[in-house]
Amino acid sequence: MATDWLALCIGNSRYHWGWFQGNILIETQDTGHLGAEGQRGRGAEDGALKAAIPWKEIPDTTPIYLASVVPEQTNIWLNYPNLSQIKLEDIPIFGIYPTMGIDRALAIFGASKVYGAPVLVIDAGTALTFTGVNAELELVGGAILPGLNLQFECLSKNTAALPQGTIPTTLPPRWATDTSQAIQSGIIYTILAGIKDFIEDWQAEFESSKVVITGGNSSIIYQLYSQTSPIQTNLLTDSQLVFWGFKNLLIF
């Protein structure tokens, strides 16, 4: 009988849950961070942590494997009775540096197992990150910039008159004639140009490498990118890379 277990990746904005039965990913869900009540130290014994798990039919004894980039949220889960914490040193990618986000490390490891190496992962989450490994699973390097939502939010929060922009589903006019579309144009075309430049530079060195877009905004980024550039067969989307990292790290 397959063993039930939960993967929990705590990202900057949300909890990312994966429910596995053995090596089969049954379902994924995203939930919000636990708030002040959890941070005051409420433990598993009063049901606070159990209540945060999306699947109520999961037994109390179900193991949770935790990877987190938010220490305050990590601390809340340390009282869970069947918790195992995954750390950077557990991930078999050579050359990982100590401050690298474990979500990036899990995603690039998962990509290497599913799509082969070398591989470049573009994670379109709260931050937009680029992470690449070579055929020997050595970290080539990467880059980090504010993600799509964060760029829109930053303008409205730090200017007196600019409105909160919305992410378009189709390309906005490049030369906009109103403020809202001007914001969309500036952010969207700059991000897409940056993605194209990173992909071209990567493929100049690793010509046959897959490039995989993941993260919460992966679908919209892929959709918008496909409207500006011919989509190559080695450019893919896969929103579950982090969970493939968990799975291949924890072979049951």
UniProtKB/TrEMBL annotation:
Keyword presence, Kinase: yes
Residues given in the record as substrate binding sites: Y97, G101, I102, D103, R104, T179
Top-rank taxon, per record: Bacteria
InterPro entries: ATPase_NBD, Type_III_PanK
Active site feature: D103
Involved pathway(s): Cofactor biosynthesis; coenzyme A biosynthesis; CoA from (R)-pantothenate: step 1/5
Gene Ontology molecular-function annotations: ATP binding; metal ion binding; pantothenate kinase activity
Binding positions for ATP per the UniProt entry: C9, I10, G11, N12, S13, R14, Y15, H16, T126
Record's cofactor remark: A monovalent cation. Ammonium or potassium.
SUPFAM superfamilies to which the protein is assigned, alphabetical: Actin-like ATPase domain
Cofactor annotation: K(+); NH4(+)
One Gene Ontology cellular component: cytoplasm
Sorted UniProt keywords: ATP-binding, Coenzyme A biosynthesis, Cytoplasm, Kinase, Metal-binding, Nucleotide-binding, Potassium, Transferase
The reaction(s) this protein catalyses: (R)-pantothenate + ATP = (R)-4'-phosphopantothenate + ADP + H(+)
Main location: cytoplasm
Subcellular location: Cytoplasm
Enzyme Commission number(s) of this protein: 2.7.1.33
EC supergroup of this enzyme: transferase
Sites where the protein binds K(+): D123
Example GO BP: coenzyme A biosynthetic process
Subunit structure, as described in the record: Homodimer.
Role summary: Catalyzes the phosphorylation of pantothenate (Pan), the first step in CoA biosynthesis.
Family: Belongs to the type III pantothenate kinase family.
Protein name: Type III pantothenate kinase
The species this protein was found in: Merismopedia glauca CCAP 1448/3
